[in-house]
Design goal:
The protein has 360 residues and is α+β, with helices and mostly antiparallel strands. It has ten helices and 18 strands. Strand 6 and strand 7 form a beta hairpin.
Length: 360
């Protein structure tokens, strides 16, 4: 074979270009295609949506009947994306008074029995299907039954400690099979109060009180629970709550509070902060879109020379950065986006790289 011909062949074989395009039929609708290429050495990115575990934390205090109904009536705005694209999700419901187990191990709160959460000293209305998934028949009806936690729960709403107590429950994780170690965790808090989780059984409504647990207790726990933050947080905490004074002023009974601590943990974990005074359908759609984006990753078909990876979103170069860029996991050959660089619906994502070895 001619020497020059061999050199040209080796040069052509050393470069692979991969382009993956996100195409949305409408805002938030995602489908994925790979553009055609003429090179015989074309590489293909495989869109790899992670499994998603979703925990709803529902305020079951006396002022929440309307908000529970609003959530139920707009559930399709949330679940539509997951069912349409056949996402592998699991979903469960707990309450803002599950924290009581912290002090009374035998308490009915956060004690799981036959798949039901027991609240207010009495079994809550429950479908009998505690962990819902994509194969759950008539999931909207099941969700509605599970979500109606009533309004006789503890008025000391401590959603953050309730998350901790619920996710630390071995029955919840193992027997009921909620948590999967390879899944993205999405927590959604729905409450018209703020959180003052603390080290006592008494009501404290001052975040500066030294007995109130810092937000870091819960982000540290969730970091560990979901496998650490080497390649970014593998979870988000989303809230539908009283976001400002304007919302608070529209509420009637005077028991609610602006959710400063809930909003803080949402900011820290990339979650959505929705107003309990706003349209639930719009907020739930935004939460579902964000969960999908945060749980999205792009798997490379070939092992790359890492230093040659070039990423663009809508033609703009994205830097390699764990906070607001992309990272590469050599073990799984997956590129993951973080922070402000998470692709939006209808964005075009291209990943160009040289393969580490030639395909035989």
């Amino acid at each position: 074979m001619n020497k020059n011909f061999r050199q040209v062949s080796r040069s052509l074989a050393s470069v692979a270009i991969l382009t993956s395009t996100i195409v949305g039929c409408s805002k938030g609708d995602l489908s994925y295609t790979t553009l055609a290429a003429t090179s015989d050495f074309k590489q293909e990115a495989v869109y790899l949506p992670k499994k998603i575990d979703i925990l709803w934390v529902i305020d079951n205090s006396g002022s929440m009947a309307t908000s529970q109904s609003n959530l139920i009536n707009n559930f399709q705005s949330f679940i539509g994306r997951f069912t349409q694209y056949n996402y592998d999700f699991r979903m469960a419901v707990t309450t803002t008074d599950a924290w009581e187990k912290q002090f009374i191990p035998g308490s009915q709160k956060a004690k799981f029995r036959d798949g039901a959460v027991l609240t207010g000293g009495q079994p809550s209305t429950h479908s009998g299907v505690f962990v819902m998934d994509k194969n759950t028949p008539d999931i909207s009806t099941v969700f509605e039954t599970n979500l109606r936690q009533g309004t006789i729960g503890n008025g000391d709403e401590r959603a953050l400690e309730s998350i901790y107590q619920t996710l630390s429950n071995e029955t919840f994780n193992t027997t009921l099979g909620f948590r999967r170690t390879d899944a993205f965790l999405a927590v959604i808090i729905v409450s018209d109060e703020d959180d003052f989780s603390n080290s006592t059984t008494g009501l404290i409504e001052n975040a500066a009180d030294p007995r109130v647990y810092p937000i870091s207790k819960y982000t540290d726990f969730l970091d560990s629970y979901t496998g650490g933050t080497t390649n970014g947080r593998n979870y988000s905490v989303n809230t539908i709550s009283v976001v400002d004074q304007a919302c608070l002023d529209t509420l009637n009974n005077g028991a609610q509070k602006v959710s400063l601590r809930y909003q803080e943990i949402s900011d820290l974990t990339g979650g959505i902060k929705g107003s309990i005074c706003s349209n639930f359908g719009t907020t739930l759609q935004l939460i579902s879109d964000t969960i999908i984006q945060l749980s999205s990753a792009f798997k490379l078909d070939r092992e790359p020379l890492v230093e040659t990876i070039s990423v663009k979103i809508d033609g703009v170069i994205v830097v390699q950065d764990i906070s607001n860029g992309w990272t590469y996991d050599a073990t799984t050959m997956v590129v993951t986006f973080h922070g402000s660089s998470i692709p939006q619906a209808n964005s075009s994502v291209s990943i160009n790289y040289d393969p580490k070895t030639l395909k035989l």
